[in-house]
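Anyone? Bumping this.
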Amino acid sequence: MIDVKNLNKQQAIIELEKIAKEIEKSDIAYYQNDAPYLSDAQYDALKKRNEEIEKYFPELIRNDSPSKRVGAPLQSGFGKVKHQFPMLSLADVFSIEEVKDFIIGVKRFLNIQSDIAFLCEPKIDGLSFTARYENGEFMQGATRGDGHEGEDITANLKTIAQLPQKIIDAPKILEIRGEVYMSKKDFFALNAKNEQEGKKTFANPRNAAAGSLRQLDPEITRTRKLSLFAYTWGEVSERVWTSQEDFFSHLQNWGFPINPNNKLCRNLDEIESFFVNLMESRSSLTYDIDGVVYKVNDINLQERLGFLTRTPRWAVAHKFPAEQALTKINNIRIQVGRTGALTPVADLEPVNVGGVVVSHATLHNEDEIKRKDIRIGDTVIIQRAGDVIPQIVKVLTEKRPSASKEFIFPNICPECGAHAIREEDEAVRRCTGGLTCPAQAIERLKHFVSRDAFDIEGLGSKIIETFYTEGLITNPVDIFTLEQRNNSWGDDLFSQKQSLKLEMRDGWGKKSTDNLFASINKRRHISLPRFIYALGIRQVGTATSRLIAQNFENWSAFENEMSNGFTEKLMSIDGIGESMAHDIVEFFKEKHNIETIHKLLLEVNVEKFNQQILINTPFSGKTLVFTGTLEHLTRSEAKAKALAAGAKVSGSVSKNTDYVILGSAAGSKAKTAADLGICTLNENEFLSMLQTIKESSSS
Ligand code: IVH
């Protein structure tokens, strides 16, 4: 090999190109195919040579140089797919009374007095998927992910024979959505086989389906027996069906499996008997279901009803009663959450509840323990409903051992020793230690990297706990400076543990360290809703974060108003009330929070919120206020239409208002609008402006 000092420019160009290609090839073999062909030493030597040449010829550094590459390529192997139409969830109800309330709400929204027909479908307990067809050909499949962005599982879906690869007489663009599941029989067979081979078994068919579909190697998916049912749609170039029932007959013609139990019910009685019958036949079905989904049958009505942030207004999931089991409480301990809340948890004698082994249950708070008189050693009935944390339904006091003692709720945080205080009007007792309490700090970090927040793969709970204890990551900023600090730590095995390179620690190696840095670096660009959610502000969940992002559009606008305690705009957002606004402002008052955020902003780039919905409508980005009684629309319907047209709806008129829509008997808001010179519309003007959107988007 020519000494770098003796290389001429031409030779350097050729060699740099060769190394870049070789490293890329080796990375793919190593990270994506799990089939490395270079030894670590060969790989490192190539990188070193690259560095040396670049040092001599800095002007020749390539854009794809291995020295520029941020960590390793995607380890997850799944590409991300943005859903043009979000994959939403369903609101849950648990009793026929709640179903009644749901139907009343639907009718009120639509101002319809007569019965409305609902398509009733079994709620399949699997994993939702979306499959995109272009000109009748299956092009792309994805998981739901966070509802806005999922994982690309095209290759895996292709292995499921029930999914048509080609469909005829279909709209040019057609996204079909449904549920992938594993039948009970196939689940038991898979577990028996895995057990025999000493491999991991799955807790239930749903986990087995998810584990099988999310395999990096589609050939493994092919060996698993997966099935599916189609039940809804996403993006469609031309909707050729007029009802849910009609949609199902199209699905059938295109060759999608649809559930044979789906049934149109015309009134509450029919709905109730559908539910009861299905619950009775539940155990004889060949697959797991966990309830019934009711969908307004008429698509025009569905469209009028529209969506809330995460769920449609036109559908609801009626869940089967939770599964129950009998067990014993071995211990009661206190968990400290990210907001400092002390939550009592019962450690149970492990018990199988409807296919899942349960060993803990939440006891909620101290009042709940008192109310149910729960003691260590008690025999209890526990229940588990879906993904909800198991709960204690009842104590069997007749089985109570004589030596049982009441649980004394601590008024000192068991994690940091700070006082734990319960405010007068609160049910929870909170640790006052703030970030000096390790439990709070750790839980905040876990929240920060969690799936709906920064979604950093490879920074799981255990790693966060270890890194925190060792002082490697004590706040969110540390996550993004970890690689840089790691690079400057000494190789000296006898130096302090904190300065020991990660790749030299027990359980770590070059590959896992590179993977970790790659997944951290991948998140240096983050959407505004995720960023807001990641901060872990009390009461601010994913839906609220999205609302805030939609209304403020960029981080600095939000920060400016909050830091100055300006809550007018925040509170005008439909869905954000006084108590939430209070918690948000309190968060910004904490100097430590602001300092951390500012340091974080040096490491990550928060994207401006992209208002996706109907950018070119007369209402997109505008703030509307409704006042008075509308004649043709209910207030909720009018609001929903405005939101769907890209507007923001506010409850009060201010200088930030763009339009005030006046119904009859409009009061003081009409006057304020006039005083501020804000454009007013009557209901017909509002409707005809909406009409122009419909016409232009359908042409
Ligand atoms: S419709 C916009 N129909 O339940 C509504 N969902 O809890 C889209 N599910 O995410 C969903 N069976 O994974 C619908 N017949 C069915 C379903 C069903 C199961 C799942 C689906 C959804 C979840 C909501």
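Late reply, but here is one note on the structure posted above: The mean pLDDT is 88.
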